[in-house]
Structures are given as C-alpha cells and as structure tokens.
User: Which sequence fits this backbone?
C-alpha cells in the first residue's frame, strides 16, 4: 500500500464529525487496508475553535468558514456534518460538487429538500455525492438498496426511521404511560431534543423516507409528496387496545409501488405482534426492503449516535478511496423514473378507529351507519363493560378500505353529539 492517502476535510465537529475523526484514527490500519491507502483528515471547520471536542484536531488545518475546505487544494473530499437544510451546509455542498470535489454527508434534511439540485451538480461535475449516514445512522441501507439489490425491482420499502419516536412508543407500551410524560423523560435522558418537533411530528422520518423512495424507485426526490403524521396523538389507551388486538404501534415510513404510482407516507401504524418490525424496540431503527427476486430483506441497528453514524461516513470514504462510485439515485439522470406520486386519500388498507362515546342506546348504530354509508365494512368491534350515561371507549377495526371512504365516515362520526373527543385513527399495516 504505497498510494497517496485520501485527504479529507471535515465541516462540523459535533457528534458525527468528532466520531469520524475518532474512528479514522482508532481503526486507521484496518481502514487503510480496506481502502487500499490511508484515509487522513487534514482540515476541519467548526464555529468555536476553543471548544474541547474530546478529539485532538491540533495537526489539522482549521477553517472558520467551511468554504475554506473547498478552496484548500489539499482536500480531496469534503465531509459535511454541520446539518440543516440551508446554508452553510447547502452552499458548502454545492460549492464542493461544482468544484469537482467529492462530498460525503450525513444530512438527510439537505438531501430531502435539495436532493435534485445536488444530484444535478454531482452529475454535471462528475463529483461523487455519498450519504450512507443520512438514513438510519449505522445501518448500511443506502448501499443495500442502491447496490446489493440493484438487480431487483423494489416493490416496497418500510422502516422504523426515527429512534426518538421508537423509544417513546416502546416506553409507552411497556410502562402504560402517556406520551407527554415519556417525551419529558426522553428529553431528560438526551434521547429527544429540547425542540422535539422534527422527530415526533414525523419530519425527520419523512426526510429519510424521501431518500429511500428516490433510491428504491429510481425517481427524483419528492419530499413534498410524503404524507406525514407524527406520534403526538397516540395515547396509552390506544397502546392498551393495540396489545389486546395483537398489534404494536410503530411510527413507520413506507414507500410502495402501486398501479397508480408511488405511495409514500410516514404515520403511526398498528403492526401485528409477530411482524419482524414489531420487535424492533427502543432507540433501534430497522428497514425492510422487498425486491421482486430477493424477496424481503430486513436490516436492523442503531439509527444514530457518534459511532454508528461515523461508521457509515467512513464506509463512504473507503468507497471513494477505492474509486467505487454510483450515481446519486442509483441511475443516471436520463434514466430517472417519472412515476407519479399517489396521494394518501387513494391509500387502501385496514384501520383502527377508537372513539370516546356516551354510553347510551343507539350510539353504536349511529357510528356503524356512518361507516356503512361510506362503504366501510367492519372486521371487529371492542367495548369493555358498561357505564350508562358515562364516556366509554369503543374500538372498531375495518376491513381494507380506501382512505377517502374512511375519511368521509370519520367526518360524519366526529359530528355525532354522542362522540366526545377527537377520534383516534391508526392505519393497520400487515407486514
Ligand atoms: N447525531 C447523530 O446521531 C446523527 C445521525 C445521523 C445523521 N446525523 C446528521 O449529521 C449532521 C450533524 O449532526 P451532529 O449531531 O453531529 O450535529 P452537532 O453535534 O450539532 O454538530 C454540528 C457541528 O457543526 C458545526 N457548525 C455549525 N454551524 C457551523 C458553521 N456555520 N460553520 C462551521 N461549522 C459549523 C458546529 O460547530 P461548533 O461545534 O463549533 O458549534 C458543530 O461542530 C446533521 O445533518 C444530522 O442530521 C446525525
């Protein structure tokens, strides 16, 4: 191994950037063997030069402005781990690609919102844009989708893509606790951000799903077409009914090829206890890919953290050192699919509907009439005990039905004076 090292410049020295410096140093020998040459960090950029980062960056060139990494002729590849969908990350990645410099990023928000412009810049300049770390941290799902399963037509990709949500839903189920209570605990433990909305409102998972969908279906990225619902409205009562019905509640991101086009959605799902994804608990992530020849492939692991995320960044650096490259979305731009997106109202599936109603004669008949009139048929119904005149929960599980019909029924049900609270509607996913 006598080749010239791959010289790396890292923008951002936080959780991920620090992890990359540490990993490259700690595993330098094995990485050099696999890369065919040394991979060396020669330059870095962050805001606060005086901050102790737990890693020694003493011998590296320092840039207060990350664009300094692009104009440094001694940097072969820019690792962008600043974060955020705007500048400085956006300007840095575009400038690096336009200068013909390879880029490795962990930034899903940037890719979800600007992926088409970045892919165009990458193709125009022949500069690699790699992003294994952007989806599900340490899980090598990008490589699996784009390379290992490249011979397959992908039918569906589904996953638990946000560790914070999975931790909250798992803890609610295991301890019978309410959402707000578990969220506060997750914040105290550092599993949730002080402003948790990106995670709990499903946006972070949707960024990742948009990337997976673009790769799975060879289509330009379309973040705005992802239907997004978060987990704020999941209650301890729904968790307890889910258990009784043999389901677990998970926030899933699902992208599916249908006859009409590509459906992509992020929302809480009831999935059968026996489904492999149902067993992925706590902060773990998992992705299931269904290919026409490979069948189902499931990958599980840590979706965040310095070590797992650095592991994925370094895998991209080793590919670059070896000269292994792939177009951003797996195909050259002229071969991107024009398959349309399918809106959520066209979704067909089964539903769990929980209502709080006044326990009095005729209430169930009113609810079932509304469902019947909208063409929704019922598979089962649950009601426990009686408390005449009081509020009681009832749960209805439907057969497969179109979302538009379900919404029409719900609209009427919500207006019944015997229905006391906003109904809880959760889609049932069988796989
Ligand atoms: N954390 C994870 O587990 C994880 C997992 C997967 C993907 N990611 C993605 O990885 C990226 C980085 O995440 P992170 O958790 O490492 O973030 P972080 O800990 O907040 O670190 C961000 C770094 O960027 C630097 N920075 C911010 N503004 C800058 C500017 N204008 N110029 C130069 N440097 C600047 C900060 O500098 P100072 O230190 O000087 O403030 C800090 O070192 C994000 O896109 C995130 O979504 C993170």
Assistant:
């Amino acid at each position: 191994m006598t080749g010239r090292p791959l010289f790396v410049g890292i923008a951002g020295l936080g959780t991920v950037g620090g992890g990359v410096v540490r990993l490259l140093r700690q595993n330098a020998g094995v990485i050099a063997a696999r890369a065919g040459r040394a991979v060396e960090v020669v330059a870095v950029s962050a805001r606060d030069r005086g901050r102790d980062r737990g890693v020694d960056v003493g011998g590296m060139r320092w840039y207060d402005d990350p664009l300094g990494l692009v104009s440094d002729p001694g940097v072969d590849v820019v690792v962008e781990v600043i974060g955020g969908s705007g500048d400085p990350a956006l300007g840095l990645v575009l400038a690096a690609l336009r200068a013909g410099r390879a880029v490795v990023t962990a930034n899903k928000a940037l890719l979800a919102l600007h992926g088409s412009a970045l892919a165009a810049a990458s193709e125009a300049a022949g500069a690699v844009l790699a992003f294994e770390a952007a989806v599900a941290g340490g899980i090598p799902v990008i490589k699996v989708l784009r390379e290992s399963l490249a011979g397959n037509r992908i039918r569906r990709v589904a996953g638990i893509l946000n560790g914070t949500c999975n931790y909250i839903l798992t803890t609610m189920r295991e301890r019978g606790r309410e959402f707000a209570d578990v969220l506060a605990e997750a914040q105290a433990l550092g599993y949730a951000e002080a402003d948790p909305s990106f995670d709990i409102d499903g946006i972070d998972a949707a960024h990742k799903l948009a990337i997976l969908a673009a790769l799975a279906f060879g289509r330009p990225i379309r973040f705005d077409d992802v239907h997004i619902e978060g987990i704020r409205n999941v209650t301890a009562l729904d968790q307890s009914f889910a258990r009784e019905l043999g389901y677990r509640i998970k926030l899933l991101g699902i992208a599916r090829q249908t006859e009409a086009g590509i459906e992509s959605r992020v929302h809480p799902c009831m999935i059968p206890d026996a489904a492999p994804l149902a067993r992925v608990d706590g902060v773990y992530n998992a992705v299931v890919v269904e290919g026409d020849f490979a069948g189902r492939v499931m990958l599980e692991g840590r979706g965040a953290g310095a070590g797992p995320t650095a592991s994925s960044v370094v895998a991209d650096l080793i590919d670059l050192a070896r000269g292994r490259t792939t177009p951003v979305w797996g195909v050259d731009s002229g071969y991107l699919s024009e398959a349309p997106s399918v809106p959520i109202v066209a979704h067909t599936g089964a539903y769990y509907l929980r209502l709080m109603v006044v326990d009095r004669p005729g209430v169930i008949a009113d609810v079932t009439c509304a469902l019947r009139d909208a063409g929704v048929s019922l598979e089962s119904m649950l009601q426990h005990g009686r408390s005449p005149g009081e509020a009681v929960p009832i749960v209805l599980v439907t057969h497969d039905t179109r979302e538009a019909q379900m919404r029409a029924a719900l609209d009427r049900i919500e207006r019944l004076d015997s229905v006391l609270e906003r109904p809880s509607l959760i889609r049932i996913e069988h796989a």
